[in-house]
Amino acid sequence: MSLNGGRNVEEGMPVQQTTDSARVDVVPAHRGDASNHPPAGGQGNAKVIGILFAIALIAAIFYGVHVRSAHEREVTKATEEAATATVNVTHPQPGSAAQELVLPGNVQAFTEAPIYSRTNGYLKKWYFDIGSRVRKGQLLAEIETPEVDQQLQQSKAELERIEANMQLAGVTSNRWQSLLAKHAVSQQEADQARSNYIAAQAAVDASKANVRRLEQLQSYEKIVAPFDGVITVRNTDIGDLITAGSGSTNPRELFHLAAMGKLRVYASVPEVDADSIHNGDKAYLTQDSNPSVKIPGVIVRNANAIDHATRTLNVEVDVDNRDGALLPGAYVFVHFHVPGGSNTVTIPANTLLFRSEGLRTAVVRNNHVELAPITIGHDYGSTLEVTSGLTVSDEIVLDPSDSLTSGAPVRVNRQTKGSR
Questions:
Q1: Per-residue DSSP letters for 239-302?
Q2: Which pLDDT belongs to residue 192?
């Protein structure tokens, strides 16, 4: 339906229509006069746009502040992480492993003695040289002692004379006793005769003792072995002048005898291991000449005292040497079995810190380092026995830096935690 009643309605003109009639009133538009007649919603739109702009500006400001703050936090965190050392840790192992204590030992014959002459003379003959095995009582050498022989003969002759005098004194005493019974002599004379007889008996006893002494000296002309053993030294030969006794200024040792069927081995055990050595315990010996051969032995005794000069315990190990595997004077290694301690822990050697105040380990507690003092029991090389200062629950730092100090924050590398 056309509303312009046969007239063209100018474009841009508002059209007003009512429901009562088909009449339309056309109101002409006023172009170009916006100042006098502004649009109905223009001022409200400008306010909305301003508010939105302000909100956008504030949001941009808050966003910038947030981004800067987040960046600062990231930088701070990165700086703190860079300043915090990352460490690898391990736990001490309970107890300590049993160890083999190896010490140098000095081998000695179970019994050995230098053999001297007890009488003066000349060596007549010797029967055994070095390396010879002899039995107890076997004749080793003979000495000519002409002076002792002559003294013995003289002493025997003197004994015969004194015995004759004693017999005469005895007969005289008996006669005087008979005469005293008949009152032919005085009591004094009878007592005198009796006293002479007693003195003669004493003289005989003294002479007999002298004879026995010289006979004993004469018996020393024969040098015999005092025990079973091996001749290790011979310092004499036929015709040598022999001086009696070992107490002279320059005594001559004729022979040296050593019993080798059983040997004594002495070793000096450090004081720290002294409590682990007990009489009756087993031990074995090795030699550099044949290290694969183990010679069994038994701890038979110890000094029960620490040498104040060396701070060691002298221990004797007896070895059955009937097969002659060892020689007296040999240098051997004695292997002792030392049991591990039950109240100790074992740590790697690369966890130690050497400080002026003493030995320390770095223990991680609450992500901070504490330098704990420790006491070392035994050094096993790659590991150490610690007798005090640590427990199995402690986390100790592997390969700690010398710059670590107590209270320093650290970060534990969980991927390698517990590796040793």
A1: T-EE---SSSSS----EEEEEEEEEEEEEEEEGGGGGG--TT-EEEEEETTEEEEEEEEEEEEE
A2: 84
Burial of 87 (0-12, 13-18, 19+ CB in 10 A): buried
Q: How far apart are CA 170 and CA 372, in angstroms?
A: 99
Phi-psi region of 106 (alpha: psi -120 to 50; beta: other; left: phi over 0): beta
Tokens of 102: 């190896």
Q: Which domains does the chain have, with CATH numbers?
A: 86-96+342-412 (2.40.420.20), 117-141+225-253 (no CATH), 146-219 (1.10.287.470)
Residue 128, both tokens = 């055994």
365-380 confidence digits (pLDDT tens): 888 889 989 988 777 7
Helices and strands of the chain, counted as H and E runs: 3, 25
- 237: number of Cβ within 10 Å: 9
Element at 202 (helix H, strand E): helix 187-219
Q: Do the beta carbons of residue 63 and residue 49 sit within 8 Å?
A: no
Q: What's the chain's length in residues?
A: 420
Beta-bridge partners for 169 = none
The four Cα atoms 55, 61, 67, 73 give a dihedral, to 10 degrees, of: -120
Q: Which residues contact 232 (CB under 8 A, 6 or more apart)?
A: 112, 130, 131, 256, 257, 258, 328
Those residues whose C-beta lies under 8 Å from the C-beta of residue 164, and which sit 6 or more positions away, are none
Paired with 346 in beta bridges are 93, 385
CA 196, 198, 200, 202 torsion-angle sign: negative
Rounded-to-integer distance, Cα 52 and Cα 58, Å: 10
Return the structure tokens found at 287. Answer: 């030699």
pLDDT band at 18 (very low <50, low <70, confident <90, very high): very low
Which residues pair with residue 139 across a beta bridge? 224
DSSP assignment string, 301-336: EEEEEE-TTT-EEEEEEEEE-TT--S-TT-EEEEEE
pTM for this prediction: 0.56
Taking the C-alpha atoms of residue 250 and residue 266, their distance in angstroms, rounded to an integer, is 30
Q: Can you give the pLDDT at residue 256?
A: 93
Amino acid at 401: S
3-state secondary structure of 55: helix
DSSP codes joined into one string, 64-104: HHHHHHHHHHHHHHHHHHHHSEEE-EE-PEES---EEEEEE
